[in-house]
Structure formats: structure tokens, C-alpha cells
Amino acid sequence: MSDDKNSSDAYISLKNLLSESLFRDLILFCFLFFLVISQNWTDIILLVFPLITFGFSLFFRIINTNKWRTEFDNKFIIYNPFGIEKIQANRFFFSALFQLILIFWIGAESLYHPQLLSLYLPYFNLLLIFSYSFGFFWIFIDLWKYSKLEIVYNENDKEMAKNYETIVSFLSMKNFKLIILSNFLIFIGFNIFNMIFTFLFLQSPTMGIQLNLPGTGVLITSSIIFITLITSPAITIISLVLNYRELNTFSKEELEKVLKPFPKNAQFIITENIKALNDKLKEK
């Protein structure tokens, strides 16, 4: 990372955070969100689902927009602590839009076809929880493939051209299985319980929690909807933090061992660059 880049980009301004793709996502999401709230929702709990999902999409979109801050002029280091952030942002964005469309649809049915609402509510209940929880599980499917700290070095001497490529740190298969399994069980568990309660409330509506829809409609749901709302993003945050820590957990000795086959000048440049990413190495 060049000195000019370090000095001029010591902080991230609002201008640096914005990009064309970020504006596109914001405009499209806000347009659909305003269409939904124009239906005069009194219970806003359902609107929180797409807002949280879109918040995660923005998080990954901003990281992707500023990914160049972890790239260096020599392009030796490939650093992906959260996988491919662009893919993660797109997945969350798709999930958020799908949830907004679902909510707009059920709101419109409640306003214009309340007599048919009881036919659609079970499907809405199932699809909302599925789309919300699946969005948080989806990002971990291929995390092990892209989450890594990799060094790629190409010598410029054409007569003695030699390529060096090695992975300094990556998400171990053991931890990947732990992350994917825990998130999968949560995803499946919430949807199974939601399915059971949804069909149970068809027989005994008084047992459920009532949420007012636009117009005269009422959604009968269970506490699963609130548990899923909080637990899915919480588990995702914990999983991402654990992955980030593992990716950045390596000693200076381990790094020197990995860099041993590299030319001396490349070893020095790569070590200094990695120190810019890993604060623990700076202290040693």
C-alpha cells in the first residue's frame, strides 16, 4: 500500500462510501419500501424484516466498494475475510427485495380482497420466514472457497520467470463445517417450527399472535417470527466474527515459513503489506 494512499485515505469520507451500485440498491429498495408503507401499516414488525436484511446488504456493499483499501499497488495479496463481498451483498439484496414484494402483496390482498386473505396467510407466513432466514444461511454456502489470505507473486524477469502462490490463512474445513452446520440447523429449525405453528393456528387461531394488516386483515403468527427476526442476524454476526478472527490468526513465524520460497525483496514487501492488515504482527 503506497504512502500516498495511506496519507490521503486515513479516514473514510461519505463520498468514499458511495458507489453506483450502492445508489442503485438504495433507490430500488426505497422505492419498494415507500410503496409498502403507503398501504398504511399499523403493525410495523413485518417491515423490520426487509430493513435488517437490506442493512446487511449495505454492509457488504460498502466493504466491496472500499475493497481497494486492502489492496496494494503490487497486487501481491488477496484478502477476503468475508468471502466475495459483492456476492454476499447481492444475495442479501435479493432476499430483501423478495421480502418487500411479499409484504406489499399481502398488504394489497388485505386492502382489496380481505375475503380471500385467509387463503394466502399461511403461504405468506411460510415464505416470509423462509426468505428471511435463508438469506442469512445463503452467504455461508461457499464461504470456505473465497475466505482466505493469499499471496500471489510473479517475477518480472522474463528469462527466469517464476510464479509463487501460497495461502497464508484460510477458513479451516472444521470451522467451516461448524459454521455451516449451525446456521443450517437454525435455518431448518425455524422453518419447521414455523410450519407447525402456521398449520396449528389454522385450526385454533386464538392461540396465535395477531398482527394488524392494512385494511381489515389480521395475520395470525407465533413467537417464532420474533425469535427468527433476532436470532438469524445474531448468529450470522457471530459466525462472521469467528471467521474473521480465524483468518487473521497466524504468527510472524508462520508467515516467515510460508514466505521462505519467495525472493528476499518480495518477502520484505509482502511482510510489510500484511502488517498493514494484521495489527498483531505490528506488535511483534
TrEMBL record:
Keywords: Membrane, Transmembrane, Transmembrane helix. The chain crosses the membrane at residues 21-38, 44-63, 92-108, 120-141, 178-202, 222-242. This is Uncharacterized protein.
